[in-house]
Design goal:
By secondary structure, the protein is α/β, with parallel strands linked by helices. The protein contains six helices and eleven strands. The chain has a six-stranded mixed β-sheet with strand order 4-5-6-7-9-8, covered by helices on one side. It has a three-stranded parallel β-sheet with strand order 1-2-3. A two-stranded antiparallel sheet has the order 10-11. Strand 1, helix 2 and strand 2 form a beta-alpha-beta unit. It is globular. 35% of the residues are buried.
Length: 243
């Protein structure tokens, strides 16, 4: 967390507007098999202090994580139930819509790893309702297989798909089958930050295709010992572990 804070603060110091997003599987209660290393014996209040210090613009909470935090949920983190949750921002003067996807189990557990037609329709409708936004970002807990199955359906309605859940992590992919969608998947163990640079905005109402190095680029910033720890976050995290 202390290294992550250093990386995020470094981006915020650059003369480029930054939006900081946190997706699925960030907290132990997000998963069926919680990882105690993510929260240990810390109180919800202590974990909130750590995440508030990250200055996240928008984060996702599963029902389990929201229940664990109770009234102490971190600032700008939102619970997602059976329907998508849309949050709007102005970044660099342009409107941005961040749409948090419901879990695969919303409306009934699907028989496969892909979202049900009803679930897919709900996130497409959420994008249509935010069609005035210059950039529409979907944050998904559906896992690699679920996201892969629907990325062509999302394309042209969403500009970015930030994935979570089971599956490989990668900074960014633009595929010929879905050229208008940047697909990025976070490392579920929190070992890196995925940084996506939008260098040119799509023209409203016109079919678009991202071009690597011209209109977008992405990189994975690994949180190794080469990244110095933010001292304020280090002190907060030490306090969390001691509680």
């Amino acid at each position: 967390m202390a290294r992550r804070a250093t990386v995020l603060e470094g981006y915020r110091r650059e003369p480029v507007p930054t939006l900081t997003l946190v997706g699925a599987d960030e907290f132990s209660p997000d998963t069926e098999l919680p990882d105690p290393a993510k929260t240990g014996d810390a109180s919800p209040e202590a974990v909130r202090a750590v995440y508030d210090a990250l200055h996240v613009d928008c984060g996702m909470l599963s029902a389990g994580a929201a229940a664990w935090f109770g009234a102490s949920r971190p600032r700008n983190f939102f619970e997602v139930g059976d329907t998508p949750v849309t949050k709007r921002f102005h970044v660099g003067g342009g409107p941005v819509a961040v749409i948090l996807f419901p879990p695969l189990s919303a409306g009934g557990t699907p028989e496969t790893e892909a979202p049900t037609p009803k679930l897919l329709a709900s996130v497409l409708a959420a994008a249509d309702a935010a069609s005035d936004a210059a950039i529409r970002i979907g944050i998904s807990p559906w896992g690699f297989e679920g996201e892969f199955a629907v990325r062509e359906a999302l394309e042209q309605r969403y500009h970015l798909l930030l994935g979570g859940g089971p599956g490989a992590a990668f900074a960014g992919e633009v595929n010929a089958q879905a050229p208008g969608l940047i697909w990025s998947r976070a490392d579920k163990d929190g070992r890196s930050v995925m940084a996506i640079d939008i260098m040119a905005l799509p023209e409203p109402g016109v079919p678009f295709a991202w071009e690597w190095g011209l209109s977008m680029q992405a990189q994975e910033v690994r949180l190794t010992s080469a990244v110095p720890s933010d001292p304020h976050m280090e002190a907060l995290a030490a306090g969390k572990a001691a509680r």
